[in-house]
Design goal:
- This protein is an all-alpha fold.
- It has one domain.
- 47% of the residues lie in helices and 0% in strands.
- Helix 1 runs antiparallel to helix 5.
- The longest helix is centred in the last third of the chain and has 12 residues.
- The chain is globular, with a radius of gyration of 13 Å.
Length: 94
């Protein structure tokens, strides 16, 4: 059985972030405020992590995405296409 990758190894991996956002429908909306529907929670879930577990263990229960994720996901327009644009600019990724 393969060991689960530690969450710290994926949180800020530019390629993983961009690939995840590219895999989503650019017009699909997400909620920034609901941890079960936010883009960051969906990223965690797609990599085998429970968002609730992350927020309790790493954020003291606060549902605020960490680091650059906050800027990627909280831009006023909550679609994956807009989050992808922000991520590319912030991460300086093609």
């Amino acid at each position: 059985m393969l060991a689960k990758t530690p969450i710290e190894n994926i949180l800020y991996d530019k390629e993983l972030i961009i690939n995840f956002l590219e895999s989503k429908d650019p017009k699909e909306r997400y909620s920034y405020h609901l941890s079960s529907e936010c883009a960051f929670a969906q990223f965690l879930f797609s990599h085998g992590f429970a968002p609730e577990e992350f927020y309790v263990n790493h954020q003291g229960g606060l549902c605020i995405p960490p680091g650059i994720w906050h800027e990627i996901t909280n831009g006023g327009i909550y679609t994956f296409g807009e989050a992808l644009k922000r991520a590319r600019a912030l991460l300086k990724y093609k």
